[in-house]
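Table 4 source record.
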Amino acid sequence: MSEVPRQTDCKVCGRAAKRTVTAPHLSATGSSAFQLVDRAARTAHEPDVVSRLPGQGRKPQRFTSNPLHAKLPRS
């Protein structure tokens, strides 16, 4: 990096342009892959608060004792 000139010609317009050092891939922070990695890292220290255990809270299946309902097609 020390051998790179601090100023170079612009490839588009040909005028002098200063070189700057920036962080790479800052535009990738909005991608779904970055969000997945960020969410996984965050849950290690800040787990989500849940109101019930997974799989609970389902409504029980309704049961009818009407014999006519037995003749209905099942889906």
